[in-house]
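Re: the 156-residue chain
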Amino acid sequence: MDNADFHAAFQEFITRKGMNATAQRRTIAEVFFRFRGHHTLEEFYQHVQEADPSIGQTTVYRTLKLLCEAGLATEIHFSDGLARYEVASSDNHHDHMICISCGKVIEVFDPRIEKIQRDIARKHNFLLRGHSHNLYGICADCHARKAHDAADINSH
């Protein structure tokens, strides 16, 4: 689905709910569909502010909830307790590796993992409807920084 399809789907959802597609909702949706990745409300709000400083954080939050309700956004919770939002797409499934040091989120996809999950579900006669797979650890940048800092300490 491209951005125009996402916008059309959101417009149709808003209309079906009997709500108005306000200029603020359209701006928020436009920024959201353009601003890919995993972002907290605060991070996303900063980008909306660049597009239209008159839009309040509550309006952004409510519109993100509408995008989730419409199936166009996904709310994700990692171990830090913060909700993050990303564009939902059935043809773009991925799992996540999350750095517990800096919070970096790396999207990963491996068909072998997907096959193993389907096989396990089948083995247990479980009708799989979806999953969330998050791996927690230290990213390469933080690992290198930690090694560099240790080398500096040892050299003194």
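The chain is about 50% helix and 15% strand.
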